[in-house]
Hints:
By secondary structure, this protein is of the alpha/beta class. 41% of the residues lie in helices and 17% in strands. The chain has a six-stranded parallel β-sheet. The protein has a six-stranded parallel β-sheet with strand order 9-8-7-10-11-12, with helices on both faces. Helix 5 links the parallel strand 5 (139-142) and strand 6 (160-161).
Amino acid sequence: MARLLVITSSPHFVEGGHLVVARELVRAAREAGHEAELCLTPQNAFGRQAGAYLATWLTDVTRTADDGRIDQVITLRYPSYAVRHPRHVCWLNHRMREYYDQWDRFSGLLSWRARVKERLRRRAVHAADRYLLTHHVNRLFVQSRTIEGRLARWGGIPSTVIYPPAPARAYRCDGYGDYLFAYSRLTPLKRLDLVLQALAQPEAAGVRCVIAGEGPDRAALEQLRRRLGLEGRVAFAGRIDDAALLDHLARCRAVVFPPFDEDYGFVTVEAFSAGKPVLTCHDSGGPAELVRHGENGWVTAPTPVALAHAMREAIDDPHEAERRGAAGCLDAARLTWPETVNRLLL
């Protein structure tokens, strides 16, 4: 059995899907009989990215403190793949998106002086990432076709897709209740404002939704709920624990998850694991790769009216929601952590 180090980066006080992937990978590796630990590397703010790459490059991951061997490292996220080890597999969830697919959105908020500085930093990060991901790792996997496409577009870097399975939780289905459920970090790219705008359409009249999660958009979303007159139909649950999450997944009619160009998104496979269909959009990235319209969920145009029509169908026909949810459950069951661990081992 191997001694493995799973390495990722994380900003302080942020609990994102990348950490869920890392912890689940450690757990699955241990269950497979390996020794495995999680290592977090720095992710510095803008203007200090070079320090994060350098600190990661200098991190010794070849041996333990008691001079024991580390057989392999598996890295997940920028700049964790800068670590040096002779047996290095990267299972990428994303690079620094502000310098890649989110550059236009990000740079448009900057002054011209700041834009000049960030262009230089962007070039440096592109060069570093290309070198690290093509000459520095033994094998490169990605967590969705969306990420695979970004690597091909910015750098021409080939990769292989391995979709992460759902986290190991006690998923269950207690029926198909009379409300929709949405949960994620409340940030602009998750597009919870689109969910509210869809609920305000005549096509979604009377549809109720529970939104769980915290984030910088919370106040703006609550204000939008008030402005749209949805206070009696939309509840913000805030941060919820695993038991509450599983309870909502078990009881809701369907899960709404319409982010923009999501890397992967555990929400989809978690909903499927609870036997619930997913409503997403054509441009949602990872979720749109897993949701098949008419089979295990709804895939719509990213407009309030189109999403409202899907909400109406899901609420009006519980038997159809059950049929699509059952198909999603079969899809989720095909993604397993033992197989994932085996593919990531050199």
